Amino acid sequence: MIKKQLIMEKALELFAKQGFEATSVQQITDHCGISKGAFYLSFKSKDELILTLIDHFMMEITSDIDYIVKNSKNDRLLYDFYNATYRYFYKHLDFAKIFIKEQTQTFNKEFILKMRHYDKLHEKTILTMIERLYGEVVKHTKYDLIYCIKAFMKMYGELFLSKHVTVDFDLLAETLVEKTNILANHMKISFVSEDYRKLNEYEINEQVTKEQMIEMIDRKIEEMEESIEKESLILLKEQLIEPTLSPAIVKGLFENIRNHPHCKWIAYLLRDYYKSMV
Q1: 111 with 161: CB under 8 angstroms?
Q2: Is 121 within 8 Å of 146 (Cβ atoms)?
Q3: What pLDDT is stored for residue 111 in this prediction?
């Protein structure tokens, strides 16, 4: 196992039990069986490790949910959205615990800004889903519906995470689809108007330039062993520099990389860049 990955996995175990603040670098290195010097070769500080963990998990779930929203059929979309999200966080219970706990307790500005960034990307995906499913029906209530969906996900998530119960994800998704449809089709009074939402917006840097994407792809290509995913990244980079491939081929290249854990964020950014094509 790569040392950086080992540190992330072992630190996550400690953070889930003790929280960020109560866990020291010494405890992490003891848990990993490495020296402090080895730790600082991978991470400049505990804060950098924490932010790297957040990026690792949030990039993966953001990319996966974005793909579902853009590719599921309408009659399956809400179900797939809820089901995939809950299954992801249940699979990564340690991260889910600290994700919920630390958001309410942290005073770290960089942590807060990073979580707000991913929260806004999540809201953007939910809005896309709502507009696609309900159209004019939710013209005046769609922003309220975003917050309703987020509240469903948070409260039901806390229920099964705190009780450690066996979860019937299919039933859970079905019940939330029913509740969401009822709200979407019967809400008449809106509280969160577009103007109100804009007043409470914080700016995030969503746009990644072509040059930045090429740099990111170059770094991933250097890190990866020979594989179909690596070859696909090379072709996608060439397509960014000089477009020659058909939309169908580009879509196929996306399919090659989108499930690779180290390529999901690049797939997400490229999908957004090529949204008119795929």
Answers
A1: no
A2: no
A3: 76
**pTM as predicted:** 0.75
Q: What is the pLDDT of residues 38-93, one digit of tens each?
A: 899 989 998 889 888 888 888 989 999 999 998 999 999 999 999 999 999 888 88
Average pLDDT, the chain: 84
Q: Name the amino acid, one letter, at 233.
A: L
Q: State the residue for tokens 């809201």.
A: 123
Superfamily of the domain at 3-43: Homeodomain-like (1.10.10.60)
Measured torsion, CA atoms of residues 211, 251, 260, 38, in degrees rounded to the nearest 10: 0
Write down the domain spans for the chain.
Answer: 3-43, 50-199, 210-273
pLDDT in tens, 236-253: 999 989 889 888 888 888
How far apart are alpha carbons 202 and 169 in whole angstroms? Answer: 33
Residue-by-residue DSSP string for the chain? --HHHHHHHHHHHHHHHH-STT--HHHHHHHHT--HHHHHHH-SSHHHHHHHHHHHHHHHHHHHHHHHHHHS-HHHHHHHHHHHHHHHHHHTHHHHHHHHHHHHH---HHHHHHHHHHHHHHHHHHHHHHHHHHGGGGTTTHHHHHHHHHHHHHHHHHHHHHHT----HHHHHHHHHHHHHHHHHH----SS-HHHHHHT---------HHHHHHHHHHHHHHSPSSHHHHHHHHHHHHHHS--S-HHHHHHHHHHHTTSTTTHHHHHHHHHHTTTT-
Tokens (6 digits) for 18: 């003790």
